[in-house]
Amino acid sequence: MSVPASGASDSGSISAKRRGRVGWLRVRLSLLLQVLSVCAFLALWSAATEYGWVSTIFLPSPRAVATEAGKLVGTGELWQAIIASSRRVFLGFALAAVVAVPLGVVMGVWWPAKAIMDPFVSLLRPLPSITWIPLSILWLGIGESQKTAIVFMGSWIYILLYTLESTKRVDPLLIRAARNLGASDVAVMREVILPGALPGILSGLKVTLAISWSCVISAEMVAAQTGLGAIIWYGKDWGNLALVLVGMVGISVTVLVADVIAERIERALLPWERHRRG
Amino acid sequence: MGILSAQRVTKEFLPGSGHGLVAVHDLSLEVVEGEFLCLIGASGCGKSTLLNMFAGFIQPTLGQVRLRGEPITRIEPRCGMVFQSYALFPWKTVRGNVEFGPKMKGLSAADRHRIADRFIELVKLRGFEDRYPTELSGGMQQRVTFARVLAADPEVLLMDEPFAALDALTRQVMQEELLQIHERARKTTVFITHNIDEALILADRIVVMSARPGRVKTMVANTLPRPRRVSIQLSSEFAALKSEIWAHVEEEVRKHVAPVA
């Protein structure tokens, strides 16, 4: 960042403008290509099923999936399923964040905490969240709290590790500068370590949110009457492949929407990274 | 009696490990209140080590550094540091960075605002108060660090090659502005550089350090009149002082570039 205050910035802005125009064109073209590739895929899928290249026993046609989705939207079942799954994800994920973010920060700044937690983290991390299903059903039954617990168990370690890593990566020079300007321990934590770790913590939360979704779906596929995972399993049990695909598309779309919302929240919380992201 | 002093200070990194490095050896130095002192020397002569000991970032292995007679044993906010790499808080705006010192002193929001305004004005950054550091050029970021350290109102300013990352033209402009700031505030300043011109433009006194391990080789009083402008570089007095200092520095630089086996 050794750009001179003036002079070079003029020519810089001209080339930036040109780059901006080229970039804008590329964004448009890229969007067009994306739409085209989806259309081509749907056309191929339609052709394969309508002309009988693939038996509809193995792959239902897009039209059958759309009809099935229409039915589910009509009865309100799709919404109920999305809301049921989202609630479980949100509860489990929020609980995991509330526990793991403070714990991760403490582990990052105070080595005994890290030493105490490290063995558990190492042992628990390799366990997929579905391995907790038998114990969680025994302890919590098959209600909502069990689903929430599965999401929690599948999420908290990742949040913890991301938080720990981002806390440790805060530039020590900035901590030094803050102390030199008279900051106490508490002030260093509040003014430097937490805001310095925030971008890393938030991107960790975003990654973990997708993991939380895969946890809830697996929990619902094992034991649930509601939710997108339950729709998929119900479809499988009745040989209704179209319903299975509706559930799968439903998950994709819901997680995409959740991602967009998470992205918005992240941008709002990190105003200083605005222009770096463009 | 100086405001800041180093008394027979030795700093060895990794002492006793067999491959220890003596950065500073038996160095004594007094900084007089209100003066602008430049430490000049080849790279690796322990200048930064000495400055970091004055700030309390590191402790001497032997000897003592003192501020107003008291030993410096921890990070010392009365010795405000200007870092070469700026060390601005990227999540704070220009105003947020400049208000940091006053905020740490527990001043009210109104007082902080007033102080920040004054120093933002002083470093000519009015209109950029709400920008984040990454939105500014290198020269502007360095101005923010000056405003930030001045707003914290330390007794001594320590500057570790603050202009090293700037291009030559911006550097001259910044030197001139630092001259004006110093001539107005008269705050005791210890400034590290390896640029003789820069030392002669800024300093009241120039300390030439020897190559590793760092010692005071000689001191030169800068007799150039104040108030100064950067154009003083064209005077014959400047040239005479420059060749005098160069004579001292050259020997050390040669030692550093081609160490005797």
Could you describe the 3D structure shown?
Chain A is mostly helical and 278 residues long. Chain A folds into 2 domains: 1-51; 65-277, MetI-like fold (Orthogonal Bundle). Chain A contains 11 helices and no strands. In chain A, helix 8 runs parallel beside helix 9 and helix 9 (228-237) runs antiparallel to helix 10. The longest helix of chain A is centred in the N-terminal third of the chain and has 43 residues, at 8-50. Mean pLDDT of chain A is 89; it is low at 1-12. With 261 residues, chain B is an alpha/beta fold. Chain B has 2 domains: 1-78 and 155-231, P-loop containing nucleotide triphosphate hydrolases (Rossmann fold); 88-153, no CATH class. Chain B contains 8 helices and 10 strands. Chain B has a 6-stranded mixed beta sheet with strand order 6-7-8-3-9-10, sandwiched between helices. Chain B has a 4-stranded antiparallel beta sheet with strand order 2-1-4-5, covered by helices on one side. In chain B, strand 1 and strand 2 form a beta hairpin. In chain B, helix 4 crosses helix 5. The longest helix of chain B is centred in the last third of the chain and has 22 residues, at 236-257. Chain B starts with a strand and ends with a helix. The chains are: A mainly alpha (278), B alpha/beta (261). Chains A and B meet through helix 7, helix 8 and helix 11 of A and strand 6, helix 3, helix 5 and helix 6 of B.
